[in-house]
Amino acid sequence: MGEGRCCPTMDLLRSEPMQLVQLIIPIESAHRTISYLGDLGLFQFKDLNAEKSPFQRTYATQIKRCGEMARKLRFLREQMTKAGLSPSTRSVRSGDIDLDNLEVKLGELEAELIEINANNEKLQRAYSELLEYKLVLQKVWLIMMPGEFFYSAQSSASAQHREIEVQNIGEGSIDSPLLLEQEMITDPSKQVKLGSVSGLVPREKSMAFERILFRATRGNVLLKQALVEDPVIDPVSGEKVEKNVFVVFYSGERAKNKILKICDAFGANRYPFADDIGKQYQMITEVSGRLTELKTTIDVGLLHRANSLQTIGYQFEQWNLLVKKEKSIYHTLNMLSIDVTKKCLVAEGWCPVFAINQIQNTMQQATFDSNSQVGAIIQVLHTEESPPTYFRTNKFTSAFQEIVDAYGVAKYQEANPGVYTIVTFPFLFAVMFGDWGHGICLLLATLYFIIREKKFSSQKLGDITEMTFGGRYVILMMALFSIYTGLIYNEFFSVPFELFGLSAYGCRDPSCRDASTVGLIKVRATYPFGVDPKWHGTRSELPFLNSLKMKMSILLGVAQMNLGIIMSYFNAKFFGNNINIWYQFVPQMIFLNSLFGYLSLLIIVKWCTGSQADLYHVMIYMFLSPTDDLGENQLFFGQKMLQLVLLMLALVAVPWMLFPKPFLLKKQHQERHRGQSYTMLLGTDDCLELEPHHDSHGHEEFEFSEVFVHQLIHTIEFVLGAVSNTASYLRLWALSLAHSELSSVFYEKVLLLAWGFNNVIILIVGIIVFICATVGVLLVMETLSAFLHALRLHWVEFQNKFYEGDGYKFFPFSFALLSEEDE
User: Which Gene Ontology BP annotations are present (predicted)?
Assistant: First the structure.
């Protein structure tokens, strides 16, 4: 936002000045005015009808109408997805589309597609049935060929007929098959008539189908099954199913009824066939002809459907955006209240001060375009309500601002940590991720996203990819700082290089060529930038780097915590809160720097002088025995006296933070209600303490005990936090050491070990393992770990010194912010 507008220079330190504005809009131009304000995207409407349900509001009918159109558009999108089409990103503009015409057009398209789908479904079902019928005829024709199963079935029927004639003479046995119970009393000619049922049954049910047939008919059926090699489309479900063709020969109506019921129960599709082989061949020919005709008809229908959907796809995004815009406009209109004259709508909302003229011009344009006789009125309202927070960001700064907002949105015009986060966040990450080889890998990965950002912006990405793409500029800064700190640590995948000149150390004589520490002397000037490459691989490397990184972590931590306390001063000064300056900022600065500022000074002095003093001993006995002589731990003249002064200042700072502020707040409260002071009525950091239960009359009782307990908690939290937060910055040292050692292990124990075997296959395997370990562990897991630790240092150690984060975001009514998903 903000591109192309005549706006003041972007300022991230303080949020934009906001105003509560009232708009009085004539009804005839209301729709166009809201639409133009949506295009402008700089006005946040307040809901003036909060007590009404959605169905009681003025424009509920229009919203319902837009909802129905959105449903039709979802239906069209589903149809395009099923057809393998996607809405065209380059929509064809067919002039200004009227909502009424679009509603009619969408209704016609929906009805047409439903009819096409229904006809296509019927044709597909008929095609599937004919295909199954053809399979049945082909398989049965093979069965009915001379010498095949059908002839054995007929001979069995003749034998059965002779057996029945014999049984007619004698007395029927109790073991006679049930199929003969009725045939025994009928004409014997009927008993030899052999009926048949044929069709297809799902293969997985074929065994059960055969067993049930046998049991239900007491074995008085003849069943033949033939395997269908390829799955066939079931006419009922439309899914591909593996099936068997079956033919059942039976005798008698009773058996036939049982067989038909069993077929229905098993989902078997039945198809008739003629006894005569010639007729069967003729039927196969007819069915094949009908299949060809149906296939042609289906293809023509599908082509017509695809053409229709493709035509829809060209304009789909335009229609979808129009419906979303209209729906959001009517949602916004429902937030406006109707004037008593029923001729005007009254709106209230927040807007940046710089946007007042733009809003006025927009409303005048809407009045002119609507041919309205009465213009819209805009007037500024005065309120004690806290305005929303609005920072104008761009694609670079927005990701850093999101990191801050995830902790809490800044209070209105509170100092924004996002300004410093742009530098401090990637730098602290790089302190833990210092390797310029790994930094180059991160840089190449993020440059890929940045170079192709236009393409990725228009695509639907996965969750992880979308998150990475959104933070591409954060990763870019992290990569650049990692290259910088990697050059300082002199590590390229844990390998040192003499990039800035030769090492300062050399051998006394040629015999110490492979020496690690013994025999090395300083032969030239100090290595100009970063760690001397000779330190790597020596026995004293780890103690040296541990000492360096630990002290560096404390220096960085104390510096960032001091920055946080200084920001609290600027907050207090901006809001005119002198109590916070004198009784919060000053004692906090004194306490922190009397202890850890002094420790930082000792570290710098020790580095500059090369002293062997034990800083642990100095800091511990500064509290335990402040009057004892420092001895060999003395770094400079007057150190003992300075320690005593600093210790006294730190002890004084604690009650300084605790006691005066609650009493001064109580006095201020009493003076305000006596009419002696009207200062700090607004814009104080302690509004919760001053006015815990503010009402319209402002005569609430001051809860001194509550304020005192709150200040006590705040003081204890700062005193203990000064120690714990400083210790927390040691994570910079710990993660940097872990990253360096892991990188060294992968290089020495994988790559060099594989190289030592002098075998090409082992070397290739070693290189693959090294690449996988580097990418998986160091470039993914370590990156995430360092990112989370840097995030914690900003949220907990830095921002808690000054940042309240209890504001709420400015959400303007803007068409640019419409979600891509259908509402």
Answer: vacuolar acidification
